[in-house]
Design a protein that fits this description.
This protein is mainly alpha-helical. Helices cover 67% and strands 4% of the residues. The chain has two domains: 311 residues, no CATH class; 49 residues, no CATH class. The chain is built from 14 helices and four strands. A two-stranded antiparallel sheet has the order 1-4. It has a two-stranded antiparallel sheet with strand order 2-3. Strand 2 and strand 3 form a beta hairpin. It starts with 5 loop residues before the first helix and ends in a 5-residue tail after the last helix.
């Protein structure tokens, strides 16, 4: 609880982003590897079409293969898919805002739960089959379905209910890398346009006075209290179970007040339910006050002192860097460094301004700039010097 310096907070936020990017790069590279035994256990054409339809954006993988020799048609189809995705993101965001405004948090939670289960089951099962193909491990469809089902149910329980903190963080990191894999069949130019559009939308949604994400934050502040937070997929960098810590603090406060005030039993008391029994609530020890506590001179860190990052930011960081790995390793390294540097400065601004900020723009625009500089200048330059064996 005393590791509350800004360096520690930045470390807690940067490490999961870096791990998810490396996982996404592994997934993008993994599907291109040949089986170690020279053949595949799931090599039928019907199976390959099913896998592509289930694990790509709107079944775009099969369309991309059909238009492989027609680059113009493929580019046009990709642009249509990207525009439809951006429009759907905008419409879904406003739909969620309307549901939240009318107090339908439970419906949103059920929606998120079903979506998470589908993503973990379908994409996780597809990667499991790809792994069996690569390792030449015979596996029947019943076993694949059983393992995928257990993986998805475990993820839903860990993310939306209760699980050890490391499992909760691990499932979010894996889910972000899996979601980025949905866009693997889009051309790199179209991916760049998609990311630029999402970064622009992120600026409007968070910083605009009438932006939907800003409205959600304001509604949550107006309501206050426990149980009114917007149910969303958010990576909370807090390494502790704050609910359990509050229970311990309430019990300690009650025990100490009971020892110091013998006549306190005559006063009416409000009770709080704790796991092992019912104890009086400490004055002002509700969730709202705990969430709004700031760091004091004794080094106490409340829950809002830790950084919370939307899972969508993880997904598009992963997509940008993993997609660049299809070009060359130099470009991949440039994009990785640019995204991490942009994310670092976003966190610095966040800690300085103490308000919600869009996490995509700085990292995405720096990453896109690094990608095009590397592809157009750095990589051809280095390739030329390597081919001419000229060293400085």
């Amino acid at each position: 609880m005393r590791h509350n310096g800004k360096q520690y907070l930045l470390t807690l936020a940067i490490y999961p982003v870096l791990i998810s990017i490396l996982l996404a790069t592994l997934w993008f590279s993994f599907v291109q590897w040949e089986p170690i035994c020279g053949n595949s256990n799931f090599s039928s054409a019907e199976t390959e079409e099913t896998l592509e339809a289930l694990s790509s954006f709107g079944g775009f993988g099969n369309l991309a293969k059909q238009l492989k020799d027609q680059p113009r048609e493929l580019l046009f189809a990709s642009l249509i898919a990207v525009i439809s995705f951006l429009v759907s993101v905008i419409l879904i965001t406003f739909a969620l805002l309307c549901l939240y405004r009318h107090g339908l948090e439970q419906f949103i939670r059920y929606w998120m739960t079903v979506s998470t289960a589908v993503v973990l089951c379908l994409i996780g099962g597809t990667l499991l089959i790809r792994l069996c193909q690569f390792l030449c491990i015979p596996l029947d469809w019943l076993s694949v379905c059983f393992m995928s089902w257990n993986f998805s149910v475990g993820g839903v329980v860990a993310i939306f209910y209760y699980a050890p903190r490391w499992m909760y963080h691990g499932y979010l990191i894996v889910m972000a890398s899996l979601l980025s894999w949905l866009f693997r069949d889009f051309p790199r130019l179209v991916v760049g346009l998609l990311l630029a559009g999402l970064a622009t939308w992120d600026i409007y949604a968070v910083l605009s006075p009438r932006g939907p994400l800003r409205d959600m934050v304001e509604i949550a502040h107006e309501r206050g209290g426990q149980g009114t937070e917007f149910p969303s997929l958010v990576y909370d960098t807090c390494p502790f179970d704050m609910h359990f810590i509050r229970q311990i603090e309430q019990r300690e406060h009650f025990d100490s007040s009971r020892r110091n005030s013998p006549s306190s039993s005559e006063q009416p008391e409000e009770t709080c339910l704790i796991e092992e029994g019912s104890y009086p609530c400490a004055p002002g020890s509700n969730a709202t006050r705990e969430e709004n506590t700031v760091e004091n001179e004794s080094g106490t860190v409340a829950n809002n002192r830790y950084i919370k990052i939307g899972l969508g930011d993880f997904v598009f960081y992963c997509l940008l860097v993993a997609k660049s790995s299809e070009s060359n390793m130099l470009t991949w390294f440039f994009c990785l460094c640019s995204v991490i540097v942009g994310f670092f400065w976003t966190l610095v601004l966040l800690l300085g301004y103490r308000k919600a900020l869009p996490a995509l723009p700085i990292s995405i625009f720096l990453g896109l700039l690094a990608y095009w500089i590397s592809m157009l200048v750095t990589y051809p330059f280095s390739k030329h010097f390597i081919s001419t064996t000229l060293f400085l």
